[in-house]
Amino acid sequence: MIRTVCLNTISKALTQDCLAADISELRLVEGNVIWADVSDPTSHDFEELAEEFGFHHLSIEDCRTEHQRPKIEEYTGYYFIVLYEAQLAGPEDRLELRELNIFLGKNFLVTVHSRPIRAIDTAARLWNEWMDRADQGAGLIAYLLIDAIVDDYLPLLDLVSERMDDLEDSIFGEWRAEVIEEIFSVKKKLLYLRRSITPLRDVFNIILRREQPIFPREIHVYFQDVFDHLIRVADTIDTLRDMLSSTMDAYLSVSGNRMNKIMKRLTSVATILMSVTLIAGIYGMNFTFMPELRMRYGYVYALLSMVAVGVGLYWYLKKVEWI
Amino acid sequence: MIRTVCLNTISKALTQDCLAADISELRLVEGNVIWADVSDPTSHDFEELAEEFGFHHLSIEDCRTEHQRPKIEEYTGYYFIVLYEAQLAGPEDRLELRELNIFLGKNFLVTVHSRPIRAIDTAARLWNEWMDRADQGAGLIAYLLIDAIVDDYLPLLDLVSERMDDLEDSIFGEWRAEVIEEIFSVKKKLLYLRRSITPLRDVFNIILRREQPIFPREIHVYFQDVFDHLIRVADTIDTLRDMLSSTMDAYLSVSGNRMNKIMKRLTSVATILMSVTLIAGIYGMNFTFMPELRMRYGYVYALLSMVAVGVGLYWYLKKVEWI
Amino acid sequence: MIRTVCLNTISKALTQDCLAADISELRLVEGNVIWADVSDPTSHDFEELAEEFGFHHLSIEDCRTEHQRPKIEEYTGYYFIVLYEAQLAGPEDRLELRELNIFLGKNFLVTVHSRPIRAIDTAARLWNEWMDRADQGAGLIAYLLIDAIVDDYLPLLDLVSERMDDLEDSIFGEWRAEVIEEIFSVKKKLLYLRRSITPLRDVFNIILRREQPIFPREIHVYFQDVFDHLIRVADTIDTLRDMLSSTMDAYLSVSGNRMNKIMKRLTSVATILMSVTLIAGIYGMNFTFMPELRMRYGYVYALLSMVAVGVGLYWYLKKVEWI
Amino acid sequence: MIRTVCLNTISKALTQDCLAADISELRLVEGNVIWADVSDPTSHDFEELAEEFGFHHLSIEDCRTEHQRPKIEEYTGYYFIVLYEAQLAGPEDRLELRELNIFLGKNFLVTVHSRPIRAIDTAARLWNEWMDRADQGAGLIAYLLIDAIVDDYLPLLDLVSERMDDLEDSIFGEWRAEVIEEIFSVKKKLLYLRRSITPLRDVFNIILRREQPIFPREIHVYFQDVFDHLIRVADTIDTLRDMLSSTMDAYLSVSGNRMNKIMKRLTSVATILMSVTLIAGIYGMNFTFMPELRMRYGYVYALLSMVAVGVGLYWYLKKVEWI
Amino acid sequence: MIRTVCLNTISKALTQDCLAADISELRLVEGNVIWADVSDPTSHDFEELAEEFGFHHLSIEDCRTEHQRPKIEEYTGYYFIVLYEAQLAGPEDRLELRELNIFLGKNFLVTVHSRPIRAIDTAARLWNEWMDRADQGAGLIAYLLIDAIVDDYLPLLDLVSERMDDLEDSIFGEWRAEVIEEIFSVKKKLLYLRRSITPLRDVFNIILRREQPIFPREIHVYFQDVFDHLIRVADTIDTLRDMLSSTMDAYLSVSGNRMNKIMKRLTSVATILMSVTLIAGIYGMNFTFMPELRMRYGYVYALLSMVAVGVGLYWYLKKVEWI
CA-to-CA distance for B17 and B22, rounded, in angstroms? Predict the structure, then answer.
């Protein structure tokens, strides 16, 4: 389905839901900026787009096949941008990455996606509000769109960060062995998030340092801002990864410590029991001449000596902190 | 064996199976592009090629000796390219890397390989289909060939990725100790795949940034596309490596956890048994005066106290989760 | 609250607490440098600033939202700088990072912060003392301010370093298992400190290598000095991180060694006890014909043999250093 | 000892064993290329060389002191090159690195070494064979020499690779604890090999990218070839290092697994023995009223119950795979 | 204390111990090179230097405060260099790093240090010997000074390397648990050495690649030489670090192996003892009808069966290498 909006940056007139057939005409009007949003694109849609805007067949190909890496490619007359909107969904907080393809030209923007993208509504709304800056053309919509997507990573990372604080509390406080599985689930999420952000950051870095033939100078500061947010997101992901690996180390050493403590304790108890049992064994021997056996309170003495050995050993092991 | 195809980019006339002897003549015709595919090359083939196309003896030397690293070298009049087609083969999914040497000139392409390369058929087929873009010369065949090889890495990596998901399930779910050997087998595969892709990516990166004397400008976007796929493959390999090392860590810590649990349990059971045995030991002592021994239900009481101690300890150890 | 100071770099006249309303006039006087310090800024303050100095709405936006990453951004007519003052606070030496936003123009400096910044007082004091260098304008105040903040990291890092020496002593000397928790607390502090310094260092590196349109050449050497201090702080943090990970390794291996020693000892003791118990067990057998049982000193001999076996084993295990 | 060979690249006349005294004269003849090979150099040799060819005293100094790092330095009129020939020697396959110093000028090559270098003979032989390319001067001999040395690393690395396959088989197959010592011996070898190759690769990288005042353009492709081999050797070393660290990890986890299995088994057996012993202990008690003791087949029943408990526990532990 | 030496590079006349007051005059004479060595500088010394040579107050400030990072800074008219002389001192081979500040101008060199620097004497001696190259001015003394300091790192690193060989022998040969503490002590030393060399290497790298306004071209080759030595020292440190971490890994795995072996042995011995004890326990039961008890050689048979079980188990455990 193609939804088209046309804005004349001179007269500030906004035409909603233009007909696809009129796009060619609208593009000829000076100052007109056209945004075509294609959701669930059909083969026919792709052909129409390619013909109307003259897109290179390689970029159309990339658009067709899913799971592209995030990237910005320069073609004659337009940029082709792939990026991912991230969302935690479902009861298990599964990470969902939704692909958005953007064709960005001087006075047009085409967005293609097969799943709903929240940022498109946000960008559309802001475009209306920022009408006074609308003379900056298609680049401004692109900025609003990319910025909305990039900014949406931050609350998601805050959630991950909170989860990690819980994990850490669980490690140093009330112990749960299952923490390990959760640590790996967070680790994987961060790996995917990182993969959908860092390539974009690297490309922005290159784009912002070279000549910008398509955009006016004024829009450059906006893309600098998006780049700044991208770095912030990427830095936060890296910091979270560092902290997670540190949490993992903490888990392993605390887990090792706990295990050591338990084994020391159990083995110490075994040693005490064996010592006491030895006494019982000695007086279980069948020698004919064992004076203690005949003694009136021999049994009591034996029990007392067992208690004495047991308590003595316990006290000693307590002192050296093995129990 | 040398198979030669000649295409006139002006008249779009395709001549299959040209004679090797005619190559010199064909090359003189304007617009002719020649693709000579040499499989299982003999010493004679090499000499013929070197003479006909004027290849430098160093590149011929590289072509002769196998196990070159993937590379692109610039010689006067042509590029010399080495790359590897990857395939999982045999019952044990052994990784097979097949070397392909490409000599790429303005209007000729020579491919040399000692084992069958699937991508050659794919490229030949697509060349016919893309006849309308054929005026872009030998660069286009090179693109189709390299792209076919690079794209073939992706389904292979998907297989590896699926295998890794199985491994992970096996770690957190039904436990198998042999997982470790499979993890190392996957690790080695990724190491080899990485080694056959990353050098290529690095060389493409350099080539695409500098002047391109051999190719027309229009072909440049195609090589940009190959480069993009190379990055995607390399990125996927790196992500899989990251995930594998994470799986490895998970294996180690879960394995450690399981072992700790078992040792704790066994040692706890030993402690219980020793405590109970101690009671038996006490009443096995041979003191003359042991009132309990004479008691009517002494034996029953002893047994009951053993059960009591055993159950009590079990309950306690259960509570502190040592058993 | 806005506090404004104005210095005429020609007449060296300093006007404290100017009225906000006069700023526009003061800026017109040649040689006047204005420093406006805004603490706990209100929405109204932001609007006033944006209007008076012509700040871009994106930089105002960054100023409003907290937790920006440290950065230096170039806007037309001014630099926008974000950095963090670090302080250990509270009974638990919690690390506190306080954000400071700086707008630095040719002849004005605007500082915005919501929590008190010590460096502002230091910079104000030094500005008075360095009156003879005051002709270097707003850049000099910026230098004094940034330098005061960066230099404040060093005593803080010295504290961390001392804490780490204590931890190390505790590992190789009097052992405490809780060291692990402290190591992770220091690790986290270093992670946050690093995060608030390294982005700044990287940006300074770029700024110092390119053309400087705003500052006179003479101020350049001052920013080179700040950069040098930034590198020093960042290097110190990296060294401390290296040493911490080394301390962590030391903890783990010493902890493992201690545990091993204890387990060896306990198991050795168990072996001795079992050997001695075996002798008792043998003479506890009920065979009718056991000559030793009838011997006059059989019991004494048995006890002696127990001692002999116990001492012998102890001596042997001591020799092989298992006990 | 100085051995000198002179080749006239125009007349292709080769003069073996020239007198040291004649070198000055020979150098004046147009087209003459002189190769002086100095083995076991004396102080006098160094002075002679310095005077004859005008070598800078710093490069002579580097030549005198051994254990320089591999490098290429540019002096006025010549390059000074240090590299190492690698060889496995002795019964224990000790790695031997032999230093070779090369002074490479427009029409002369001086090689200095204190131990025999195999590559010198190889290069001398090839120089004779490649007489038709001899007009490329001293650069060609340098190429032949360096290429011979670099190529000699590959069979050596193949040996290391085979050794590593053996180690891996030993880890997953028939277990030997001594593997660990061999792994470290290989690791050290790779560290030294890497150290003697990577600096050279880095310098070649720089040299090949800049202007080449000494060599003619045609020799450039030869040095490109050496560079390619250097990368290949360095890449192979890095891959081997990666695989070795992976082998090391495999060793540690398999070793841990084996140990865990053994401890589980031993502790399980101990548990079984203790359970059975408990039964014996119970019937070893001396209570007056123990009906079982009087039973006709009490003893047999007791033995049977011991067997039952033993077999039952064994069966259970087998089922949970602890034994 | 300020010691001043003046050398006229034209007349080769050397004036020792010039008066501080004469420096201004001496600097005016053409060809004069002045070296002022300031040890234990007072505030007055700093003021005098700043005034006489026109040093920037920031470099004087750096000179005053100790613990600067090694660096080279360019000021108008001179370079300001900070570097560290390393020495092992005291009975425990404590690493001592002594700071040296150098102001290097066209025709003057000022060295400032608060602790004695050996390299100053070396450089002074060599300056006299190298009188024939003295026309290369202050740069030559700087070279001699820096080179002497950098070269002094190498014997120190040889010592560290020898210590590491001892540690390794101790790990694979006669075992000492204290090795771990020594490994960490060496690790720390290497960390400090690295920190005092690598920043210098990086700065030299930048300086040598750009235009050199202060030094004549001939001195450039000397600084290239210092850079080469710096790389060599830094490379050696990195190699030692790699080898140390490898030694550390060896320690951990060998230590783990030894522990495993001991535990296996002790647990195996325990199993044997328990089996034998079980036999004693069986014949300690009090059943009325136990035919063996009445047998003439029952006791001997029992003892023999104990020995048989013990030897049998020992033989079995020896075979599976658990003992």
Answer: 11
Mean pLDDT, chain E, integer: 86
Tell me what pLDDT residue C211 has: 59
B267/B322 Cα distance (integer angstroms): 9
Per-residue pLDDT tens digits for A222-263: 888 888 899 999 999 999 999 999 999 888 888 888 888 888
Which of B37-46, C21-30, D208-217, E237-246 is the least confident region?
Answer: D208-217
E268 touches chain D (CB under 8 A): yes
Q: How far apart are CA D130 and CA D9, in angstroms?
A: 12
Question: Is the pLDDT assigned to residue B212 strictly greater than 70?
Answer: no
Task: Please give the average per-residue pLDDT across B4-20, as a whole number.
Answer: 80
Q: What is the CA B260 to chain-centroid distance, rounded?
A: 34
d(CA C113, CA C121): 13
The upper half-sphere exposure of residue C53, i.e. CA atoms within 13 Å in the direction of its Cβ, equals: 31
> How close, in Å, is residue E126 to chain C by CA atoms?
33
| Average pLDDT across chain D, whole number | 86
Q: Give the strands of the sheet with B108-113, arranged side by side.
A: B14-15, B2-8, B32-39, B108-113, B94-105, B78-89, B71-75
- Residue (of B173, B181, B157, B174) closest to B243 by Cα position: B157
Residues of chain C whose pLDDT is less than 70?
Answer: 134-135, 210-217
Single-letter amino acid, residue A141: I
Q: Do the chains contact at E278 and D277, CB–CB below 8 Å?
A: yes
Give the pLDDT score at C17.
79
> CB of C88 within 8 A of CB of C159?
yes
The rounded distance, in Å, linking the Cα atoms of A108 and A89 is 32
Contact present, D17 and D7 (Cβ < 8 Å): no
* Chain C residues within an 8 Å CB radius of A255: none
Closest CA of chain C from A232, distance in Å: 6
Closest partner residue to C299 (CB to CB) among A246, A249, A287 is: A287
In terms of Cα–Cα distance, which of A255, A221, A65, A222 is closest to A150? Answer: A222
CA distance C283 to chain A (A): 5
Q: Tell how far CA D103 is from the center of its chain.
A: 27
Contact B266, B233 (CB under 8 A): no
Mutation pick from C97, C293, C299 vs chain A, by most beta carbons of A within 10 Å, is C299
Contact across the interface for C280 and A275, Cβ inside 8 Å: no
Chain E: touching chains (3 or more CB pairs < 8 Å): C, D
> Nearest-CA distance from C260 to chain E in Å?
7
What tokens appear for D182 in the block? 């061999």
- Residue C142: closest CA among C100, C198, C175: C100
Interface pTM (ipTM) of the complex?
Answer: 0.81
Distance of alpha carbon E3 from alpha carbon E12, whole angstroms: 19
Q: If you ran DSSP here, which 8-state letter would residue E288 be given?
A: S
Q: Check CB contact under 8 Å for A246 and C191.
A: yes
| Contact with chain B for residue D241, Cβ under 8 A | no
Q: How far apart are CA A252 and CA A245, in angstroms?
A: 10
Chain A positions in Cβ-Cβ contact with residue C266 (cut-off 8 Å):
264, 267-268, 270-271, 322
Amino acid at residue number B81: I
Residue type, E266: L
Strands of D78-89's sheet in order across: D14-15, D2-8, D32-39, D108-113, D94-105, D78-89, D71-75
Q: Which two tokens stand for residue B258?
A: 């399981």
DSSP class per residue in A108-138: EEEEEESS--HHHHHHHHHHHHTGGGGGGTH
Residue among E221, E260, E267 whose CB faces D75 most closely: E221
Decide if E283 contacts E293 (C-beta within 8 A).
yes
Determine the distance in angstroms separating the CA of D300 from the nearest CA of chain E, rounded to an integer: 9
